[in-house]
Design brief:
Elements lengths: L9 H8 L1 H20 L5 H25 L7 H20 L1 H5 L3 H23 L5 H16 L5 H27 L3
Helix pairs in contact: 1-8, 2-3, 2-8, 3-4, 4-6, 6-7, 7-8
């Protein structure tokens, strides 16, 4: 980030105006990541509800940001696509949290893998060389892992999700405070 608002690209100006939302998302994501690192076996249904809330919040935020930047960035549709997928996935998980933990875990983990894969690709396109690139790569790799073996070592997968969430949350908190300086 440069020293003045005029030095920022329009995407960062839009995010700068929404630094409080970015901070709240970062704190929430970091808390979820910490819980998953400490106690990943706390139950898939509980984890499903927590992640569905995160996914819903992130999806709504992506939709708002995507539609706001449609005149300033040709990749605006990526945020809208990601937001739409996340809102749909959150609705499915919230409506069947026990199913996620029992019968539908495999199918929903595959859907979650798709979201992580798409999110990792889109986030990487937006963040090349910026804070958060590492979390984009982790999301992409986690998406591949979930698609390749949805029930393989759920404990390890949940810990990896925790690492990705903690990394992404920390990056969002850091960026929120950077954006706050300009507003």
């Amino acid at each position: 980030m440069e020293g003045t608002v005029e030095d920022q690209d329009p995407y960062e100006q839009i995010l700068g105006k929404s630094w409080k939302i970015l901070l709240i998302r970062g704190i929430f994501i970091s808390l979820v990541g910490t819980v998953l690192l400490i106690k990943p076996t706390s139950g898939l249904a509980f984890t499903a509800v927590i992640f569905s809330l995160f996914i819903a919040l992130d999806g709504i935020t992506q939709l708002v940001v995507g539609f706001r930047m449609n005149t300033v960035n040709e990749l605006w549709w990526g945020s809208v696509l990601k937001g739409t997928i996340e809102v749909i996935l959150a609705a499915v998980i919230i409506s069947h949290p026990k199913g996620f933990g029992e019968l539908g875990a495999s199918a929903l983990l595959i859907l979650l893998g798709i979201v992580f894969l798409v999110s990792g690709i889109i986030d990487y396109q937006f963040r090349k060389g910026k804070t958060g690139t590492f979390s984009s790569i982790i999301l992409f790799l986690l998406g591949i892992l979930l698609l390749a073996a949805p029930l393989f070592a759920a404990n390890i997968i949940l810990r990896l999700i925790g690492i990705a969430a903690l990394s992404a949350g920390t990056a969002r908190i850091y960026r929120a405070f950077q954006y706050k300086r300009f507003n």
